[in-house]
Amino acid sequence: MAAPADMPPLMRLHGAAYATALAEYFRSQGLDVLLLMDSVTRFAMAQREIALAIGEPPVTRGYPPSVFARLPQLIERAGNGEEGGGSITGFYTVLSEGDDQQDPIADSARAILDGHFVLSRDLAEAGHYPAIDIEQSISRVMVDVVPQQQMDLARHFKQLYSRYQRNRDLISVGAYVSGSDPVLDDAMRRQLPMVSFLTQPMHESHDYASCCEQLAGVMA
């Protein structure tokens, strides 16, 4: 389903609703549906155009209240169907100006969704792909779908990665004295394997089991 930017705002709203309705139909047939929507921000902009045209006052960075009411109405239609039925797994892209995580649409989407991948401009410019900032990315359902051992490995990985990133400037200028912080020493020792684990060429694929094995190898 396509509703490009040159279409009237009402058609763009209907495009998002229609795509979700199609996914709901297949879910009602007992199928597991993957819904990809690009983007929630353009959906919000279309609603803003309509709301401002009918006299609704802007409240947050030019967005009227109806925008923040429409977002959960759209997104929360995804998820599991009735017991024994199908499901909709939705991936919604959100655009923010200048990587601003306090953008009102990004902030509202984070409150609705079960998790989010934050893409970093700095990582992309450094040639690190996929450019996922794991410090800011989160899954609220991970604890319910992965074993405790993997949770512990992922948490330890993230702690070491974050510790290194926060001290990267000290390390690069040689101001850090080895042995001052055992956790940072461990992070420095594992840095290259960690970066290798986080990067992946476009045409390369890994299944879930191999990713778990690689993570365990990095943290061994």
UniProtKB/TrEMBL annotation:
Residues 146-216 form the T3SS EscN ATPase C-terminal domain. Its EC number is 7.1.2.2. SUPFAM superfamilies: P-loop containing nucleoside triphosphate hydrolases. The keyword Ion transport applies. Gene3D superfamilies: 3.40.50.12240. It comes from the Bacteria. InterPro entries: ATPase_a/bsu_AS, ATPase_alpha/beta_chains, ATPase_F1/V1/A1_a/bsu_nucl-bd, P-loop_NTPase, T3SS_ATPase_C. GO terms for molecular function: ATP binding; hydrolase activity; proton-transporting ATP synthase activity, rotational mechanism. Residues 2-139 form the ATPase F1/V1/A1 complex alpha/beta subunit nucleotide-binding domain. Keywords: ATP synthesis, ATP-binding, Hydrogen ion transport, Hydrolase, Ion transport, Nucleotide-binding, Translocase, Transport. Pfam families: ATP-synt_ab, T3SS_ATPase_C. Belongs to the ATPase alpha/beta chains family. PANTHER family: ATP SYNTHASE, FLAGELLUM-SPECIFIC ATP SYNTHASE. This is H(+)-transporting two-sector ATPase. The lineage of its organism: Bacteria, Pseudomonadati, Pseudomonadota, Betaproteobacteria, Neisseriales. The gene is fliI_3.
